[in-house]
Each structure stands twice: as C-alpha cells, then as structure tokens.
Design a protein that fits this description.
Rossmann fold; seven-stranded parallel beta sheet; three-stranded mixed beta sheet; 12 strands; 42% helix
C-alpha cells in the first residue's frame, strides 16, 4: 500500500482523480493536498475515507508536513503559476529530499515539442531529478467551455479567443480523472512513460459554437481576436498576467501547429470510448443557456 498525495484536490481534475480512486476501491491511502482543509472537506464531503494535509504551491512552509510519509504524488500545475523556477524547482527538490520517488504529472498534449510552455520545463525537471514518472498529456479540456470561457458565454453570449480556425482536440476531465486514477493505482505497470489522452474529434471554435447553438435557444457566437486584443480584454476584466499569458499560448499557438493527433490510450486503458463533444455539451446545457445580467 502506498500513500498517494493529490495536489489540486479541490479543482476540476483533482476532484475527478479522487472520485475515480474511490470507485476503484484502491488499497492505497489517498491524501488531499489543499490550501484550506475546512473548505476542502465541504467540497470533498462525498469521500469520507479521504485524509487531508495543508499544501499550497505558493507557500513553501507547507511542503515539509504535506510530504511527510508520502510515496506517490499526483502533480499538476495551477493555471496561474507560470514561473516554474520559482515554484516547481523548490517543490521538486523537497520531494526528492523526502525520498519520494514516484510522480504522475498532469502535463499537456505536445509538451515534449514546445519549450515555450511551462509543462515542458516541469517534465524536464522531473526527469533530471531522477523520479520514476508518468506524464499524462491530455488535449484541450472540454471543461474550459464551462470554466475559463463561461463568463464570456453567459455575460456576452460570445466565445472570445485568438484561435482563428485552428482545430482543437477536446477531452472530458472525467476521462482524465479516470485514467489518472488507474495509473496511480497501477503505477509500476506504466512508469517512466508518457501517454497522450485525447477525445475522438478535432474541431474549431466555430464548430464548437455551432454545436452549442444546436441545443440552446439564445445563440452565442465565436469572435476571433488578435493576441494583443485578447490580452487587453482579459486585463480589463482583472485576470492575472500569468493566466492571460497561459491562455494566449494555449489558444493562439495551435494556429501554427499541425492538427492534434488522436490517441486511443483512454480506450485501451479503460475499454471505453472517451466522451464526445455533443455528449458533453448536452450534459452541460444549463450552463450554456444561462444568461447573466451585466450591470
């Protein structure tokens, strides 16, 4: 039995990883690393066997106690953290000093090809530090439509991005959580490998908008803007600089890249097909239909 620390435990991916580990009825002990234990217990109240430790990527004083007795870590990068030298170098050094040898890192599809994105640097740091690793490289999260993009949809009836007609492969976070749970449970069978996890379709945001409009009464539109315009829009909205940069890279660079490759890893791992876009959009229909009154 191993003690498994889940970072980002109350976030979208972390929650699903915990949910599927619970479904597996794993013999491993699962510990949620969170910034506020009382709040986390409310979010994760459906998992009574879960343990909690105080862990904050930006508070190095939490590292020592959070890593005590841990054997394996599910590691992700909070979207607003782009300075890898400042935050991840000391974290990985502490993990190594604690003699923790096993890390599953939630990376991103194509991370190995682009030194610009922070995931690439984290992957290299993990390898350089000699950890046994699994890099799980998902494509574009379907849930971006219901998180980072939802305010524009509900407030402006628009998806505003610098993506042109670039095609994105979309994966359901539930599929990612299920795959990560299996990999955490059966780490030795998959260690020191990288796996892309994708959906089955590549679509532009024009097409995604069309799919959404097929099921809602008040239509939305896709507005393509240049990166500078996008930066200024998000800055005016109060989004932090690091997050704007990450969003810009995520949505602009695909315009100059090949269409995403499609992987069958999820199907091979689970015996099931990943969620398709239509299924996801219908599942989240209420979010797309909601209209906020902007004062």
């Amino acid at each position: 039995m191993s003690n498994i620390l889940i970072t980002g435990a109350t976030g979208n991916v972390g929650f699903e990883v915990i949910r599927f580990l619970t479904k597996l009825d794993t013999a491993h002990k699962v510990i949620a690393g969170v910034r506020n234990i009382d709040q986390a217990k409310k979010v994760l109240k459906g998992f009574p066997s879960l343990d909690y430790v105080l862990f904050d990527f930006e508070d190095f004083s939490t590292f020592n106690d959070a890593l005590k007795g841990i054997d394996r870590i599910f590691l992700l990068r909070p979207p607003h953290i782009s300075d890898i030298d400042k935050y991840f170098k000391p974290l990985l050094s502490k993990i190594k000093a604690k003699n923790i040898k096993e890390i599953i890192f939630l990376s991103v599809q194509g991370a190995e090809k682009s030194k610009i994105i922070p995931h690439n640097k984290i992957e290299r740091l993990i390898i350089e530090n000699g950890f046994n690793f699994i890099f799980l490289r998902p494509s574009y999260f379907m849930q971006n439509l219901t998180t980072t993009l939802i305010n524009d949809i509900q407030n402006k009836r628009e998806i505003i991005l610098p993506s042109g007609q670039a095609k994105f492969n979309c994966i359901d976070i539930e599929n990612i959580g299920e795959a990560a749970a299996i990999l955490l449970d059966e780490f030795d069978d998959y260690k020191n490998q990288a796996f892309e996890i994708t959906g089955l379709e590549n679509e532009s945001f024009t097409k995604v908008t069309e799919l959404i409009n097929n099921i809602i009464e008040k239509p939305i539109k896709y507005r393509n803007v240049n990166p500078l315009k996008f930066y200024n829009i998000k800055k005016h909205e109060g989004m932090v600089k690091g997050m704007i940069i990450v969003m810009t890279l995520l949505h602009f660079l695909p315009r100059f890249q090949k269409e995403p490759s499609i992987s069958d890893f999820y199907q091979r791992l689970t015996g099931k097909k990943p969620t398709d876009l239509n299924t996801f959009i219908n599942r989240e229909k209420k979010q797309f239909e909601k209209i906020n009154k902007v004062t």
